[in-house]
Amino acid sequence: MVQGAAFGPMDGADGADGADGAEGFETLDALGGGRRSVFRPIGVGPEFARRAGEADYRGHRWPPRLPGITWPPVPPTGIWPVAPLPIAPRLGDFTPDNASLLVLAELAQLRNPAPAGPASWTLLMRPNVTAPGVDDLVNDIAAFGGLQAELRELRLLAQFRAGAMQEALAQRNGIIGYFRALLQFNLQTHPYTYYLTASALRVGQYLCMYYKGRFNRPRPIRLDPSILSPIGPPGHPSYPSGHAIQAFLIALCLEQVVPVALGTGLTAAHSPFRLLAERIAKLREVLGVHYPTDTIAGRRVADGAFPLMMLCPRIAGTASPTLASDGLPVNQLRDAASAPVLIGGQPVYDNGWLALARGEWEPR
């Protein structure tokens, strides 16, 4: 893996613990993959040919002036078509970074219990400064053996920096690129898979910042200068790990898109998706910018956030009003035995990004 390689238009937005302000969306059009920040000057050029009897070219402007001709042409109906009815929505109407915000907006509206309770995503972890016994950060540190045990672990992990430095630095803002290399897909070959992955990235980014603001844990280097991280600490608190949330959430989504046939005796924990997520998350500890309990909490948030993503209509799809003989919507996904498919405990329909992403990997 080459450090700094361009993986895709969303890679600059992943790894919320990475380089601050690296949005990475602005250069997408240079690769022909999006519509943002296009610099396309239009000046005054020459007409296509000199006019008869004239020794020089006349200037040609845009829009052109065509004497005696109505231009641009007027549509036969006399009006331009207006979305959404005359023009069918397309996936590419929103670039991956913007489309991920649509999913985030759906997630933000989820309530528990619906519709008047607190937002579901605010209940994944519990900070409580007045009652430490129900504070997830306090409990995680205690379960690990205490803060000093965590700092000893980071000093032990520092020995791997030389061998993993390039990889760890590339993953500061390159999480999607590693998953794309695992499966060999991109925005052009498997667009719905990419949009689903981009949405997991964005949801993870949002959740990590929400909980970082709630717990406000200082980075390890502030407590133990012997850790001497080779990179500057990211400009936000430590707990939970954003890389862990994003990597594991992407892995959970991709496991439902491209199920992996595991060997005898292996479990889902041995899937390449989760193993890659573990590697990405662990290297943040190697760099000394995260405690082990940051990683543990990040994985827990991802596990809790995945079912919530499956409640977002763009991800799960929407039910058809037409019902099958068993009373279920005709467009609900079913397995080989015609039993309804539930992912994260939620029904999934054939018009959602997850189902459409699955279709991109089916044999043609």
Q: What is the chain-wise order of helices and strands?
A: EEHHHHHHHHHHEEH
Shape: globular
CATH class: Mainly Alpha
Parts with pLDDT < 50 across at least 5 consecutive residues: 1-7, 16-35
Distance between the termini: 30 Å
Q: What is the CATH H-level superfamily?
A: Phosphatidic acid phosphatase type 2/haloperoxidase
How many domains would you count in the coordinates?
A: 1
Number of discrete helical segments: 11
- Structure summary, number of beta strands: 4
Spatial strand order of the main sheet: 1-2
Radius of gyration: 25 Å
What does the oligomeric state look like here? Answer: single chain
Tell me the CATH architecture: Up-down Bundle
Q: Major β-sheet, in short?
A: 2 strands, antiparallel
User: What is the CATH topology classification name?
Assistant: Vanadium-containing Chloroperoxidase, domain 1
Mean pLDDT: 83
Please bin the fraction of helical residues. Answer: 25-40%
Strand content: under 5%
Estimated structural class: mainly alpha
Key terms for this structure?
38% helix, 2% strand, globular, Vanadium-containing Chloroperoxidase, domain 1, 4 strands
Structure description:
- The chain is an all-alpha fold.
- It has a single domain (90-317, 330-359), classed as Phosphatidic acid phosphatase type 2/haloperoxidase (Vanadium-containing Chloroperoxidase, domain 1, Up-down Bundle), CATH 1.20.144.
- It is built from eleven helices and four strands.
- It has helices at 96-108, 136-144, 147-157, 161-170, 175-183, 191-215, 242-257, 272-286, 292-309, 313-316, 353-359, and strands spanning 45-46, 59-60, 342-343, 346-347.
- The strands form two sheets. A two-stranded antiparallel sheet has the order 1-2. A two-stranded antiparallel ribbon has the order 3-4.
- Helix 4 packs across helix 8 (272-286), helix 7 (242-257) packs antiparallel against helix 8 and helix 7 packs across helix 9.
- The radius of gyration is 25 Å and the shape is globular.
- Mean pLDDT is 83; it is low at 1-7 and 16-35.
